[in-house]
Amino acid sequence: MRILFLADIVGKTARKEVIAHLGDLRRRLQLDWVVANGENVSGGIGLTPKNALQLHQAGVDVLTSGNHIWKHKEIIEFLEQTDWLLRPANYPPDTPGRGSGMYESGGQSLAVINLQGRTFMEALDCPFRCADEILARLPKHTPVLVDFHAEATSEKKAMLFYLAGRVSALIGTHTHVQTADAQILDGHTGYISDAGMCGPVRSIIGMDPETVVSRFVNKLPQRFIPAEGDTMLQGLVLDLDPASGRAEQVQGWSMTTESNQRKQG
After folding, report:
1. CB of 45 within 8 A of CB of 67?
2. What percentage of the chain reaches a pLDDT higher than 90?
3. Catalytic residue IDs
């Protein structure tokens, strides 16, 4: 079973590049599944139902998210209507939407869990205990992919050791910079501290450099604007054993696309 996890998709330009290239990537990489983090798809922060549907129709099987999922209020009802769009599972029990799902395709099963960290982030329910509760409901040996949307690398590594041998892969998201620590722990669980982003090359974590630099220098509020131009698509390619759920190969992945022709529209 081969999975491409696409890191945080930031803004319109990156969204269009993912849509334009995903069909070819599915064929060229011989993918069985595509999972992507979509919390920054719409305007660089949040996700609208329209953009979520565009990505799903282009070939993203499951969309995960994070702390920015609530930016566009219309997504709340949409979260209730779909099973392929997830929000972090460790929000309070009455929060709209779902934080995990079991999916079937081509005779194969894949469970996806979305969790959010608490270090330097909003104080939510414990993601460690939340993971325990979800895993207890899954059939044994089910391939399980976890998107852990967290700020601190230490918290991500702690979750890796906590879930080692119990999930197929733990993928860190949120910081938009791909780390060089892709690995398989104890011969079972694939990992990377951060999968990076799908976003403009000439940017500061996807945003226009001028506005971000101005905020650091002047300490005044700035409305961040997604950058444009050539785009890097980043993520992780995983080969999993569908019978045992064990990760067999994990590789950081990246490509750069020329996006000038798709700026309009």
Report:
1. no
2. 95
3. 68
